[in-house]
Write a structure and sequence with these properties.
The chain is mainly alpha-helical. It is 70% helix and 3% strand. It has 20 helices and 4 strands. The strands form 2 sheets. The protein has a two-stranded antiparallel ribbon with strand order 1-4. It is globular and about 70 Å long. The protein starts with 5 loop residues before the first helix and ends with a helix.
Length: 450
């Protein structure tokens, strides 16, 4: 029984597993970033770590079986930063209230799917707009990969030149060369092999630096790495931590911030998920006739996002969403849910082998992000250059997504401008119900102003 349609996609279980491992390595940084960020909001580091492992693993596995697509899910970086902002502001609210907001936002997203809001938005998105989004996410991955080496730094929403770090840049260069050569020779798992090369080179250099400083033996070095300890009971410090509603919302300010958080989490997650899922879907089916595209799976993907957000509020993390790094697995050859199943299982494996992954330098994923990002960015060449206005619009939107990585904002405001251009400049009647986008845009603007 070919449950994952391997024959239709002309792939094998081996290829899918390799792609799943590459996808996991490209996004495993969230295992360190999410606990580090939320610990600043007063949450338990170990508790958030276990919650991240749990919700990322199970959400990705559920997605694998329900959508049959190579999509990996984890707590979103943008929403995690938003979560911290609400918790640490001058009149901030307790993190338990924000977990309740996360839970409710997931219910709202499921409602958007159930009552047709999602379908309305997808009817408006044309092929050109989807191609722009994919290229924009490609530029975002490309720049983020470079930034992990220290060569670029991001501040106030813009990139600037950072530090020249010989070791990360050298390792990154070697790994990219390996990926390129193996790709040219049509070797399977070329991205994964490049990531493994980067991982072992980074570990070797890390040990060499530690040896130069303290003369530490290799045995003691790895003992230090594996000294990270936690107990399953740590999860109870963040799991099912909803507040006493009557006590928490007795103050109008808390109630107002809570409502604002629900809307902001929902808006950011919903439009970000649409952009990421659509781009990943189009990358999977890029060489298959449009008539064969399985739109049911794409709709199921946004449903999984909503259900996963409900679970994340219960387990103890910010909103869970599909990751742009899923495209690393897709470009590596992943086309089915087996890729996501592999990634999900590796997340759960971190319950037992966390130090092996949390000790990985952030720049290890850079070669895959740079290579995949560049390949996706090149898709913009398929855009119709004869239409100068839409071509300029697409170029500007790609730059915005690449520099800001605000996929949700790009979908919301990009669709608004896209429909206005088609309606008033080209006199084309928009498909679907274009009024839904201005309503969302006004709500989003008002939430950011107040």
């Amino acid at each position: 029984m070919d449950y994952f349609n391997l024959k239709f996609h002309k792939t094998t279980v081996k290829n899918e597993i390799f792609a799943g491992i590459a996808m996991f390595l490209a996004m495993s940084y969230i295992l360190v970033v999410c606990p580090s960020v939320l610990s600043e909001a007063g949450m338990s580091y170990n508790g958030v770590f276990l919650a991240t492992v749990c919700v990322s693993g199970f959400a990705t596995i559920i997605s694998a079986f329900y959508t049959k697509l190579p999509l990996a899910l984890a707590p979103g970086l943008g929403v995690t930063g938003m979560f911290l902002g609400f918790a640490t502001a001058e009149n901030g609210i307790h993190w338990s209230v924000l977990l309740l907001a996360t839970y409710i936002s997931g219910i709202v997203i499921c409602g958007f799917v159930r009552f047709g809001i999602y379908d309305m938005i997808m009817e408006i998105m044309g092929d050109d707009f989807r191609r722009i989004l994919m290229s924009g996410i490609g530029l975002a991955l490309f720049l983020y990969g470079i930034s992990t080496t220290g060569l670029l730094e991001k501040g106030n929403g813009f990139y600037s030149f950072g530090r020249f770090e010989p070791i990360p840049l050298t390792i990154c260069g070697i790994s990219i060369a390996v990926i390129y050569v193996l790709k040219r020779r049509n070797k399977k798992g070329f991205v994964l092999i490049g990531l493994i090369v980067a991982y072992f080179l980074s570990m070797s250099m890390s040990y060499y630096e530690a040896y130069q400083i303290s003369g530490i033996s290799i045995g003691n070095y790895f003992d230090d790495i594996f000294s990270f300890s936690y107990d399953a009971k740590d999860l109870t410090q963040v799991m099912l931590s909803f507040p006493d509603v009557l006590e928490s919302f007795s103050e109008k300010n808390t109630l107002y911030l809570f409502i604002n958080a629900v809307f902001m989490f929902t808006m950011a997650h919903f439009f970000d998920a649409i952009g990421t899922n659509t781009s990943s879907f189009d990358a999977i089916y890029s060489d298959i006739d449009d008539r064969m595209k399985d739109t049911v799976s794409l709709k199921r993907a946004i449903t999984v996002d909503g259900i996963s957000s409900i679970a994340s509020g219960l387990i103890g993390t910010p909103t869970v969403t599909a990751y742009g790094e899923s495209l690393v697995g897709i470009v590596s050859g992943g086309k089915t849910g087996i890729t996501a199943l592999t990634t999900g299982c590796l997340f759960l494996l971190c319950f037992f082998m966390a130090p092996l992954f949390t000790s990985m330098a952030t720049y290890v994923a850079a070669p895959a992000l740079i290579y995949v990002g560049f390949m996706l960015l090149l898709r913009f060449r398929e855009f119709d250059k004869s239409n100068k206005i839409l071509y300029f619009f697409g170029f500007a939107l790609i730059l915005y997504v690449g520099i800001s990585f605000q996929v949700g904002n790009a979908v919301l405001y990009g669709l608004l401008i896209y429909t206005l251009i088609k309606r008033f400049i080209f006199k084309q009647k928009p498909s679907g119900n274009p009024w839904i986008i201005p309503i969302f845009a006004v709500i989003h603007i008002l939430l950011n102003l107040v």
